[in-house]
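Worked example

This section walks through a single chain of length 268. The input is the sequence exactly as stored; nothing has been trimmed or padded.
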Amino acid sequence: MSWGLIPFWHKGNARDFGLATHNARLETLLQKPVFKAPLAKGRRCVVLADGYYEWKDVNGRSTQPYFIHFKQPDDIRAGDSSWKKRTVWNEISGWSGPRPLTIAGVYDVWKNPNNGLEHYSYSVITMNSSPTMAFVHDRMPAILDGSEAVANWLDVENVTLEDAVKSLVPVTSLEFHPVTKSVGNSRYKEPDCVLPIDPVDKKESESKSSQFMTTWLKKATPAKTNESEKEAAPKENNDGNDSDKKVGKRTKSPTQEREERNVKKGKE
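Given that input, the structure is written out below as tokens.
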């Protein structure tokens, strides 16, 4: 399933669909045909994620990324993968690993006209931020907080679309912290993408990905040496007479030498 809903009625290639459908605004969810049609068919889904990034304006001059996630169990910290080494599931207590974000979404199924293959795609529903999250950004995903909220959103048989949409409200049970600006580079996949940083740390003024590119460019483009400039560089005269200092091996400029040669030829 791909992010960016492609409606079932789209004609042509899937990549040719021109509308931006990564997000679906809650305020117009039941008004836009691209979302209203699949929802009328009961095509609600839940998007799972470790968390998501949002960029906060800082004094109108720069932005700082934040990693936003559910509060985790006491023995699990952001960026710590040691939990993978232990058993995190059993039939009695259920899942004891990291708690993923559960986000309300809408999906559709588009059929390729050339080969008949079905392509599943989805949009994340967004809404106005809660007072807590407004510190970072004025919009946030529609988070389903808890198993009951997830079950109600997915229960298309017993929960009407109108009631399901009304149940989507901004949650306040999220945590967030600033992270490296390297997350702005989609090719950067290091573990520190979710680790907390000091946002005023001068070392973070230039992201690690930017530092990498700068270093690479310096190595790929060695400094060029201008031989003519080296030849014209002044040589120090240690005889104590500043008026007799010479410039390189040449005491006259190329222009003066040419003029003198021309004068000599004219006399001859």
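What to look for: The first strand starts at residue 2 and ends at 3.
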